[in-house]
Amino acid sequence: MQKLWQKNWTLNHTIEAFETHGDLLLDQRLVKYDVLGSLAHAQGLHQIGLLSGTELSQLRTSLLNVLTLEKKGQFTLQLGEEDIHSKLENYLTESLGEVGKKIHTGRSRNDQVLTAIRLYTKEQLLTIWEELLACAEAFASFADQHPNVLMPGYTHMQKAMPSTLGLWSGAFLAGLLDDLTFLKTAYTLNNQSPLGSAAGYGVPLPLNKELTAQLLGFAKVQPNPLYCQNSRGKIEAAVVAALITVLQDLNKFATDLLLFTTTEFGFLSVAAELCSGSSIMPQKKNVDVAELLRSKVHLLLGNYTQLVGLSSNLMSGYNRDLQDSKKPLFESLTLTADCLEVTTLCVAGLTVNPERLQGALSAELFATHYALELVKQNVPFREAYRQAGQAYSQLEFAAFVESCTQQLTDTKQGELIPLINQLQQEKTIFTQERKKYQTSINQLLSRKGMYAQTYRL
C-alpha cells in the first residue's frame, strides 16, 4: 500500500506490523471523525482560494460516501494502510485523482489525528454525561421513594447512628453531581480545535482556524500550535482523571450493594435478571455485576498511569510514543459509559426488605441521640456522653429508642431537595450543549443544503 511519505525504499514488514497493527483497530473508530475533520478542512481551503467550488463539491461527495461505506462495514483498515489518514487520502486520490491530492494541503497527520481524537472524545464524553445524568436520576428516584426508611449507619464498618435509605441513596446522587464538575472541566479542555496547527509549528498559509473550529462544533481554537502537540496525552489524562472520580462513586455503591444483599444483612435484593448463578452450587444467586463494577476504577487508574507516563519525558513537539495514548483513553471512555448504564439498571432493580432493616436497628445506634437529648436538658455533653454509654444497654432505654425511631420516620429528609434541583439544572445544561454540537455537525454535513443528513451521537 502506497504510503503518504513514500520514498525510494520499502518498509520492513515486521517493523510495519509492530508500528501499526494494534493501532489500526483503534483507528477504525476514528473513521467518521477523520471525515468530519476533512470536510471542515476542505471548506477552509475553499475559503482561502486553494480549492475551487467544483473541487470542494467533489471532495465532499467522496468524503460523505466514506461515511456511508463505513456504516456498511465496507471501509475497513487493513495491514499496510498505516493509519486512517493514509487510507482516507488514498481513497480520495483513487476516486478523484489530482483533486484528492489537495486534501492534505496545510495539514499534517499530527493535527489530523488530534482533531479526530478530540471529536471522538467529545462525543464519548457527551454520552457519558447523559449516562451520568440517568444514573443520578435513578439514585434520586430511589431516595425519593424511600426518604425515611431507617437503616443502620456505619463508621469503621461498625454500627454508628441511624440513617435512612434516602440519605444513603442521596449520597451517591450528590457524588455524581460533584463528578459532573470534573467531567465538564475535562470536556472544556478537550473542546479545543487543534486543526491548522499542522505538525506543531503552523504553516505559511492563511488558514481560517476559527472557521474550521466553528464548523466542527469546538468551543475555541487551541491557539499555540506547539502546545497542541504538547497537550496530547495531558488532556487525555485529565479526561481519564475525571472518569476515575465517577467510578470511585460507583465502586463505593457496588461495595455497599454486595454487603447489603448478603444473607447476613439482607437489607436489599437485586432483580434476578441482573444476577448470575454457580455451575456447582444450585442455590447461588450472585450479584457479580457489582463485583465487576467495583473493579473498573482500578483499570482506569492503570490507564491514567499509562497516559501520564507516555506523555512525560518527551521533548516539545510530536513524538510517536503518543500513538499509544489512544488505547487507554478509548478503553476508559467505553468502560465508564458501560459502568454508568449498568449501575442505573442495578439501582432500578433494587427491592427493599423493611423487616431486615427494622431488625438491624439495635439500641446502640441511638446512643448519640440519647446523649444529645440529655444536653437539651442542660446536662454537659461529656456527662451526657458518659450516661448514654451506660444507658443504651439497659431496659429503660427501649422507650427512648421507640420514640426516637418514630420521630426519625416522621421527619422528611430535606437534603434531597437541593440535589434534585441541581440535577434538573444539569439536565438543561447538557441538553443545550448536545444540541449545539449536533447543530454544528449537521450544518457541516449539509453545507449549502446539498447533502442533508441528520447526525446523532
Please render the helix and strand layout as text.
Elements (H helix, E strand, L loop, with lengths): L12 H15 L3 H17 L5 H19 L12 H13 L12 H37 L4 E6 L2 E7 H26 L1 E2 L15 H7 L4 E2 L3 H6 L3 H27 L7 E3 L17 H23 L15 H23 L1 E3 L1 H6 L7 H9 L5 H11 L5 H14 L5 H30 L12
Parallel strand pairs: 3-4
Antiparallel strand pairs: 1-2, 5-6
Shape by Cα distribution: elongated
- Total of helices: 16
Q: How many domains in all?
A: 3
CATH superfamily of the largest domain: Fumarase/aspartase (Central domain)
What would your notes on this structure say?
The structure is a single chain. This protein folds into three domains: 13-105, Orthogonal Bundle (Fumarase C, Chain B, domain 1); 111-205 and 219-359 and 414-440, Fumarase/aspartase (Central domain) (Fumarase C, Chain A, domain 2, Up-down Bundle); 363-410. It contains 16 helices and six strands. The radius of gyration is 29 Å and the shape is elongated. The two termini are 33 Å apart. The strands form three sheets. Strands 1-2 form a two-stranded antiparallel sheet. The protein has a two-stranded parallel ribbon with strand order 3-4. The chain has a two-stranded antiparallel sheet with strand order 5-6. With 457 residues, the chain is mainly α. Residues 449-454 have low confidence and may be disordered.
